[in-house]
Amino acid sequence: MTLPGGWRRGLCLALLLTSVPAIACSGPTVAPTPRPVAPGAPASAAASAPAVPSSLPVVAARAPASSVGAPAEPPAVAGLRAYWVGHATVLVAMGDKWIITDPNFSDRVGLLARRKVTPGIDLAAIPPVSWILVSHGHFDHLDKRSLKRLSPTAAVATPPGVARFVPKGRFKEVVSLGEWQSVERDGVRVTAVPVKHGDGRYGVDGAFRRGSHTGFVVEYQGLALFFAGDTAYHDRHFKEIGRRFRVDVALVPIGPVGIAPVRGIMRTRHADPADALRILEDVGARWMIPIHHGTFFTGGRRELDALEVAVRKRPVGNRVKLLQPGEAFTLPGAAGAPPSRPAVYQ
């Protein structure tokens, strides 16, 4: 039986709920563009990235001070710089430390979906990182091929039951953290915080791997980064995060939005742009960087169109910093500076 294109895409999106990696979803694939060889260098051909609505300015890429081909140096003083690589992968410099979230530089997620845009940063240019944050075991968030190519000196933080999927013997330390548990290494404090998503890795194992998904808050030099991983909206969870932490930058998923027939199902585990802004409001972050869109499962403007509508409706919309792959948002500031609430885009 041949399904219409819209229903075929809807079925593919629905499969994300169980993370089944055995079905290939056909559809147009945007030709990848050359990757920048160093963090902060923008892609040379913007045609491969989703078009950005005119009312959602993209933060201009900050080119590194070092020469092209060498990784950018992290700020010498307290500050934060975040590069969106694609999907849920963000490379973050906090002071003199590097952190990376759900690293995925692969061309496919199992057999389920093909990458629609080349990663914004070349994996070979990633500097040695202090922490790798893995939010859960789904194939688009825990990619073994990418993990095997990252610095073995990194520490890896996972939720319970997920450490077993991290390549054995690769990293100096793998830490499993339950809700509100923290670990501190070399001044960097990582705390697992509750979010709302699915469990397991292979779909069926989600029935017995309960509690195997998480978000993280990373604190260093007076700054706090919130990484939501993959999540639906949950008012108690995010309001409690806002009470416990003073978040500077939040990395929040805005997709997949899905088509109408499957949206109700998708929303039980995935935030759409309107939900993402509620998360931003609840955690009280100074800025939000949208993630988890336009990379694997959907392309084009679906999430961006929905984001454009959402930011017009909610007062926190002016704190959204939309990046294209390889672009960076820089948050300068001294340690301990009180959060601001600017009313216009930076």
What is the topological layout?
Blueprint lengths: L4 H11 L63 E8 L2 E6 L2 E5 L6 E2 L3 E2 L16 E3 L10 H4 L7 E4 L14 E4 L5 E4 L2 E6 L21 E6 L2 E5 L7 H10 L4 E5 L6 H7 L6 H11 L3 E5 L10 H12 L14 E5 L14
Parallel strand pairs: 3-6, 6-7, 7-8, 12-13, 13-14
Antiparallel strand pairs: 1-2, 1-15, 2-3, 4-5, 9-10, 10-11, 11-12
Helix pairs in contact: 1-4, 3-5
Structure in words:
With 346 residues, the chain is an alpha/beta fold. The chain has one domain: Metallo-beta-lactamase, Chain A, CATH 3.60.15. 16% of the residues lie in helices and 20% in strands. It has a 7-stranded mixed beta sheet with strand order 8-7-6-3-2-1-15, with no helix packed on it. Strands 9-10-11-12-13-14 form a 6-stranded mixed beta sheet, covered by helices on one side. A two-stranded antiparallel ribbon has the order 4-5. The chain is globular, with a radius of gyration of 18 Å. The N and C termini lie far apart (50 Å). The N terminus and C terminus are likely disordered.
